[in-house]
TrEMBL record:
Protein name (database record): Peptidase S54 rhomboid domain-containing protein
Organism: Actinoallomurus iriomotensis
Record keywords: Hydrolase, Membrane, Transmembrane, Transmembrane helix
Regions crossing the membrane: 16-37, 98-119, 131-149, 155-173, 180-203, 215-233
Alphabetical list of InterPro entries matching this protein: Peptidase_S54_rhomboid_dom, Rhomboid-like_sf, Rhomboid_protease_S54
Principal cellular location given in the protein's record: membrane
Molecular functions per Gene Ontology: serine-type endopeptidase activity
A GO cellular component entry from the record: membrane
Membrane topology term: Multi-pass membrane protein
Keyword Transmembrane attached: yes
Length: 248
């Protein structure tokens, strides 16, 4: 596996939306119970209950998204945690889930990929279009996961689906770009970006059926959606031509 460090595709302006998305993800994570190390008198059970309730409230739960209504709290959580009642809109949870992460390594990996590959895509689309594109592929990834596992009550969290969309679009928009990457964990090489992006997709594909907590299906939906959007941009001429600093 090769770990990307830097994409050499030149950009004409600062990727402000990419920076903003990274900042929002980091701030939300730091303020969430997931990042909490607990207070002095707080027990492990209390922390687990707080984190579980938080993920159920703001995560994208496939059964809720398919049924378009909030599901009852799982019995084991209700009996152990006695959470306060809350109202949830399942279609909005697909949005909130894009800014939640399950741990430090989860958010770190996502933000590294967004930082490396988001700038060039934002430069090509323009800031507002890039933001809308990011949210669109994130929604497609979340609902694709829900359609695949319609009865699941496991919350889907993370920006991975949206970022996979960024990778897919980068593959189509910049097929000849180069990326500095670590190969064999410590050797830096200048590789064609497409090799890293195809590696990402192949890994997700062959990881389907893995019993881990990773939502590989959502990554695949996001990646393919990003590729399709990239193709539409190339064929339709929607990409930004001017270097002027605007949100158009």
């Amino acid at each position: 596996m090769a770990l990307p460090l830097y994409d050499n595709q030149p950009t004409r302006r600062a990727p402000l939306v990419t920076y903003l998305l990274i900042a929002v993800n980091v701030v939300v994570f730091l303020l969430s119970p997931i990042a909490s190390i607990g207070h002095g008198g707080e027990s492990r059970l209390q922390r687990n209950c707080e984190q579980t309730t938080f993920l159920l409230k703001y995560g994208a739960i496939p059964k809720e998204m398919i049924d378009d209504r909030q599901a009852p709290m799982p019995d084991e959580v209700a009996s152990a945690c006695h959470p306060a009642p809350y109202h949830k809109r399942p279609w909005l949870s697909a949005l909130s889930s894009m800014f939640l992460h399950g741990g430090v390594t989860h958010i770190l990996g996502n933000m590294v990929y967004l930082f490396i590959f988001g700038a060039a895509t934002e430069d090509r689309l323009g800031r507002l279009r890039f933001l809308l594109f990011y949210l669109l592929v994130g929604y497609i990834a979340a609902y694709g996961f829900a359609v695949t596992y319609p009865g699941s009550m496991t919350p889907l969290v993370g920006a991975s689906g949206a970022i996979a969309g960024v990778l897919g679009s980068h593959l189509v928009l910049y097929p000849r770009s180069k990326t500095i990457a670590l190969v064999l964990s410590f050797l830096p090489f200048r590789l064609p970006s497409w090799t890293l992006l195809v590696q990402f997709f192949v890994f997700q594909w062959f990881s389907l059926g893995d019993q881990s907590q990773t939502a590989y299906v959502a990554h695949i939906y996001g990646f393919v959606a990003g590729m399709i959007c990239g193709l539409l941009v190339r064929r339709g001429g929607f990409a930004r031509k001017s270097a002027a600093l605007s949100w158009r």
